[in-house]
Input
Amino acid sequence: MCFDFNQEYLFLEVLSEKKFMSLSGAQKQLLILLAFLAAAVVLWNTFLLYPVKLFVVMLHEMSHGLMAELFGGDIIKIQIDYRIGGYCQYTVPDSFLARFMIASAGYLGSLFWGALILILAVRTDKDRYISLGIGIVLLLLSWFVIKTGEMFGIVMTVGFGLFMLASYKWLSDTFHDYFLKFVGMVSCIYVVIDIKSDLIDRTGIGSDADSIAEMTGVPSMVVGIIWFFIASLVIYYTLRYTFRNLR
Output
């Protein structure tokens, strides 16, 4: 008896597609995110995820700056480093609350933006406009990066912003849907990994947690552990809300 393996493969492919189409909306979205998670794990230390990690750094430094502005300060300049780091230089009133909130805004702020991107990508059909908004924000942010005069950060911030604007005009709705889900999910995961790596595994390196430790007397490792649990809870409730009432 002879089998046609091409026909057998085609049959399995059609069967898998039918099974996928029979799933609920929440189940489909969950499978997509699990597939993205698996891809992120496999590609974590490759160049393919490098721009997304830099994007999280941009969100991190932007969050410091926005919090400084909220407390009456001003952003002076923002650096984006090729080693997946950066800093935000700002002025701020001599207030404990202002300094505490600004130091806390980096990791938790970038987590907030990543969670917001993921929620909007899953629960709305405005993906193309979300990409447009991200592009505009990055180009506005690049003004402060340009002030450093460092070419790498300028090219990456302006380049990412222009890419998002170009994608709004020329790339498909499907691209925006999948890309934003991937970026939102990776942003959330990267914040948790970064907190563990920078604030729990290592201390005394001039991190945001070290700044909090100097202000409060609480060891920076304890600050890192608290932020780690906050970030984990935010991701948990983000996923709960993301899939709530989806059909």
Q: What stands out?
A: The chain has one domain: 23-243. The radius of gyration is 21 Å. DSSP finds nine helices and two strands in the chain.
